[in-house]
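The record is kept unedited without comment:

——
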Amino acid sequence: KIESGKIDLSLRAAQSNKRVFLRDSHRQWAIEHDFIEASYASLYRGMQAFLSAPQSRKDLVLLQREPETDERKQLNGDYGTFNDLMLRVKQANDLFLIIGPPGTGKTSFGLMNTLKEQLTEPDSSVLLLSYTNRAVDEICSKLHREKIDFIRLGGDMTCSPEYKDNLLSNRAQQCSNIEQLRQLIAKTRVIAATTTAMNSQLSLLKLKQFSLAIVDEASQ
């Protein structure tokens, strides 16, 4: 928290000996962003998963083959001028890229309409991902505005205060046993997270299967 006369810091690892600060209190300090090397581990795991994937999967990710579509699928909802786009999104079996300059509605309309249409399908669940916590907060703001229930993965220090009640760690406190936690995860149809947070909690996929994953700002 930055104010005109002071800066408040939260340390990931609590400093038990305050003398380290008092000793140099007369000096100026340089403040740098926290950095966790563990995030590299998920990158290596992702690379390993790609290298060991079937050739057809590699070809899809590298766009060396045409993604499969199913033209029998039709829309359940009405999205006005976005109906044509939403129909093509729904008919895509493998992947679909929505590309456009900033401010053209990729998140507000592309992501949200895709989510709404998917939630019209019974028993479907959606995983919403983005690269930065700020981008995930933006997604959470739209979910909150549309009154769509969701769970967010991540920590207190990386989540906007408005959505801390949706953090899995805080929602889990309402459960008295592991079975209630399983049921909570199972019945919550929307999970939001950064790609790093999801990679660090892949065990979630043993509890819940998603019918669709939407990656905002996927080029990052």
